[in-house]
Design a protein that fits this description.
101 residues, mainly alpha, 3 helices, elongated
Length: 101
């Protein structure tokens, strides 16, 4: 079983990847879709804070339940961050199409 520190590092690492991709998009495309991208950033940070809270407050002291609890946190982390990357990708594709026209 991984310890809480490792799970927090995973959460922070993926969160930082999403946020840095958003900043890169904003740098490259200036004012295009700024509201949508900053919305992704806000949602990412809310998700990060929520997941860190869940890591710090496991349901019970039973080892099996804690392991299952951390598994749920990891799957939620991957699902949410994948969704944010997908949203940013869709915004980026939309921008590229409008620039080429």
């Amino acid at each position: 079983m991984a310890n809480m520190r490792d799970i927090k590092k995973e959460i922070n690492g993926l969160t930082n990847e999403v946020i840095s991709d958003c900043f890169l998009y904003l740098y490259m495309h200036k004012d295009k879709n700024k509201k949508e991208v900053t919305g992704i950033m806000k949602d990412t940070l809310k998700t990060r804070n929520n997941l860190i809270y869940k890591v710090n407050h496991p349901d019970s002291g039973d080892r099996k339940k804690i392991k299952k609890h951390f598994g749920k946190i990891r799957s939620e982390l991957v699902g949410k961050m994948d969704g944010y990357f997908t949203k940013l990708s869709m915004i980026s594709k939309g921008t590229k199409e409008s620039v080429n026209k």
